[in-house]
Amino acid sequence: MAVRRSSARPRRARTEDPTTPGETTTMPSSTAPMAVDPDITRPDSHAVYMSYWFVEGADQGRAVLDEIMDAWDSTPRPDGILSFACYLSTGNDVVLTYAQCTDDSVYRPFTRGLNLPEGPASTDAIEYRLHRDVLIDPTGQAPGAMVAASFDVDGSERQRSIVDAIVSNVESASVDEQAGLIAAHFHLSVDGSRVLNFAEWTDDEAHIEFLGGELSRRSLEIANEMPGVRPLGFRRYHLHRSLAV
After folding, report:
1. Compositional bias (Low complexity) at which positions (predicted)?
2. Rounded to an integer, what distance in angstroms lies between the CA atom of residue 231 and that of residue 221?
3. 3-class SS of residue 141
4. Are 214 and 177 contacting, i.e. CB atoms less than 8 angstroms apart?
5. Domains detected in the chain
6. CA–CA separation, 72 vs 189, rounded Å?
7. Could you tell me if 32 and 15 are in contact, meaning their C-beta atoms sit under 8 angstroms apart?
8. Is the pLDDT of residue 34 over 90?
9. What's the pLDDT at 44?
């Protein structure tokens, strides 16, 4: 199935946290007191990288995020890196970074030269391709929460099958069942072993209410009943800082 991407939406800047730097259009650091959510559907993004750090509480999580972002912000970046955003889970136990690149040639050489945190346990960056989007709210509303739901799968055919099934379920749901969902972005790992739905929600409360509803129940049922697919659960995140070109 061909990749379906929605048209780019204007992203509204966040201003709740006056200590977070915003996006920058140059290689040196930026001092703008904003964090802007990445445009996940931007058409020039052809490679996505996600990494995780495991932390003990909000204070350590924010410190790790700031250390990561400071390393990125102070290092000249190649043109192929489009955006970089970092998030803290609502459980205050996981830090997530999300990087968009024009291709797969720039991210790993660049990050090998960064002075990144060494203390917390972390994962190597997982490389993804954005495969499909479900756009519910086209207004460009900034999400109040991001939810990363992951699936372990047996190869590329299973990747596409579970995405198609869940997309069909979401698109056929009632407006009430979709309440609070801004967009869902389905990413496929390049090694064929993972599917990740990086979904934009209006706020935590909307996602919590969704979890008790029929749309969530049907989606989980679809995943549990599909051979070669194993749901790994989800985490909810809040944007901490971001950089973009």
Report:
1. 18-31
2. 10
3. coil
4. yes
5. 47-128+239-244 (3.30.70.100), 129-237 (3.30.70.100)
6. 24
7. no
8. no
9. 97
- What is the rounded average pLDDT for all residues in the chain? 88
Instruction: Quote the CA–CA distance of 67 and 78 in Å, as a whole number.
Output: 20
Nearest to 153 by CA among 187, 103, 193: 193
| Whole-number CA gyration radius for the chain | 17
Rounded to two decimals, the pTM is 0.86
Other beta carbons less than 10 A from residue 96's beta carbon:
21
Range list of H helices, 84-191: 107-112, 156-171
- Select from 149, 151, 170 the least CA-distant residue to 160: 151
Q: How far apart are CA 189 and CA 158, in angstroms?
A: 12
pLDDT at 25: 29
pLDDT, tens digit, for every residue of 121-168?
Answer: 999 999 999 999 999 998 888 999 999 999 999 999 999 999 999 999
The residue to which tokens 């699936």 are assigned: 151
Average the pLDDT over 2-9 and give the result: 42
- Say what angle helices 214-225 and 204-211 make with each other, to 10 degrees: 60
